[in-house]
Amino acid sequence: MKKELREKLLSAAPLAGMILLGILFLVFALIKDINIPYSMKNILNQSIITMVVATGAVYIYTLGAFDISLGASMCVSALVGAMAYNRTGSVAVMLGVCVGCAVLISLTSSLLASVFNLPVFVTTIAMLSLLNALVLVLIKANGTGDVIQIPAEAVSKLNTVGFKLLVFLLFFGLCVLTFNFMKLGRQEKFVGGNPLCAQLSGLNAKKLSVIGFVMAGLGVGLGAFLTITYAPTLSRNTAGSIGMDVIISIVFGGMPVSGGARSRIYSAAIGALSMTLLSQIMLMLNLNSGIGQMVKAAIFILVVFVSMLNNRKTILPR
Known about the structure:
The protein is built from twelve helices and two strands. A two-stranded antiparallel sheet has the order 1-2. The model is unreliable at 312-318 (pLDDT under 50). The chain has a domain at 45-240 and 256-261. The chain is an all-alpha fold and 318 residues long. Helix 2 packs antiparallel against helix 9 and helix 6 runs antiparallel to helix 9. Helices cover 75% and strands 1% of the residues.
C-alpha cells in the first residue's frame, strides 16, 4: 500500500511542480505589475517548439536510447525547408520538406545502428558531426552571407500562438493515441525496461527502434517548420539549444532517463512548460543567466537522482 502511494505521488509530482511554478509566476507577475496575458503568450511561444520536439523524442527515450543530434537535425530540416520555399513559393511544400528531411535523418540514424549493430548513442554522435558540417555546406551554397531566409510576410499569418498550439495538439493527440492506446507504446516500454526479456518474448527491437525514430523525426520536422514561422532568417545557430532543452524537458516532466515502464508521453509537455516558467520567474527576480543555468542544472540532477533512487531496487538488468 505504501509503495502504491509512493508511486502515485511520484507520478503526480511533475504536474504538481508545474502548477506550483505557474502559481509562483502569477504571484511575482502581480507583485511586479507585469502584463500577464503578454507574458503567457511569450511563455507559450518559447515552449511550444520544445514541446513538439520533446514529445516525439519520448519514443526514443522510452527504448532506453539517447539522441543528441536532434538540434542539428532540426537545423538542417529548417534550412532545406526554407530552400524549398524559395524554389517553389509554397508553404505546404516547405512543411512537407521539413518533415520529410527530419524523418529521413532519423531513419538514417536508426538504420545505421541496426545495420552495424551499434548503440544508438554512437550513431547519433556521428550524425551530429555530419549534420553540423551539412549546415555549413547548405548555408554557403544557398544562403546570403551567413543565413538562409524566406520573406517574413510568407509566414507572418502562421506566426501565432493559436496556430502553433494547434500543431502541437494535433501531434500530441497522435502520440497519445499510438503510445497509450496501441500496442506500440506497451512494446516500447517493454524493450526499454528489459531488452533481453523483450527479445525472448518475440518482440523485434530493431523494428520498434525504427518506428520510434520515425515519430521523433516527425516531431523534429514540425519543430523545424514552426521555427521558420517564428524566425524566417536561419543561421548555423538555429535550434542550437534544442537538444539539451529536450533532455531537460523530459527529465523535468518526471520521465526516467533509462526509459521503460515509467515513460509517459505527457512528460515532455509538462517539462517544457515547467522549464520555461522557471526561466521567466528567474528573469522577474533579476537573476542573471549564469545563475539560471546553475539552478536548472541542480534541479536536473536532483530529479534524476530521485528517479534512479526509486528504481534502483526494482529495475531489471539491461
